[in-house]
Amino acid sequence: MTQTLAFDKPKVELHVHLDGAIKPETILYYGRKRGIALPADTAEELQNIIGMDKPQSLPDFLTKFEYYMPAIAGSREAIKRIAYEFVEMKAKEGVAYVEVRYSPHLLANSKVEPIPWNQAEGDLTPDEVVDIVGQGLKEGEQAFGVKVRSILCCMRHQPNWSREVVELCKKYQQHTVVAIDLAGDETIKGSSLFPGHMEAYEEAVRSGIHRTVHAGEVGSAEVVREAVDTLKTERLGHGYHTLDDQALYSRLRQENMHFEVCPWSSYLTGAWKPETEHAVIRFKNDQANYSLNSDDPLIFKSTLDTDYHMTKQNMGFTEEEFKRLNINAAKSSFLPEDEKKELLDQLYRAYKMLPAASGQDP
Q: How much is the pTM?
């Protein structure tokens, strides 16, 4: 029986992590195949151990990856498969276009720097990881009819990786990669300003690489300001605490900054306190430029529909608002202009809308 979706028309998703969107069955398969111990023997048990049911802290959330990443990291076959299966997952969710992000270094096993789930050195480089993910995504595109592009993540706690990340963005621009991101624990004070990250983003600006940054999820409005003014980000991952600085928020609204909002994620990571009004309600009421996204559906035991259902049932979102935010997501995507126009035309047709009726124009 087909699941009834909260919004059953084509959607655009801009903020979802590949390593947080893996099927539990695939983790189990590669754990057994590679002889790597996992904390459960069935997909259901594994999902319950990895998954979150009630709010925790962002650092608690980040430790979840240590349970299962040993089964995937360093395996060419596993990495290609999770990329392919990711596209299949998005097809089932009614997604027309998605930008999926990941850290090439955290999926490789060839770096000297310690990675919690892969201490041993091996021969799978971050460069090869990007190539393999691109292969899996392209095969998934062909099989499932979802347009997919990828974003490469720098990690706040590893600024010495960032220069290589931007070089990989440049190298693989024709192989699905469209942007650079900065992810990880934003409570590391001043991490936006670490030289490695700043140099990478300066090179991204020089080279015409698109830029997004996780900022203002649990960090202060100052982290958002650093992302905008120093790293020259074009979009904000989460961005909720922008609202703590009304002057900054007003400025970013005028500049039409895009906020990549992940409502269910923000509940489970403690980034949003349920006794307060969620930032996305303010974004909606202000007709701001934002999108709805699933972030890490494996850990949040969710699908993209979870976020649409949450906002529809609990926050008064309408189908018209869903149309508006998806049009804005398409306009704020990192596609080239000709491909962006094709995507927008596809949405206008599906929504039975004229372009002029699409709401705010990024």
A: 0.94
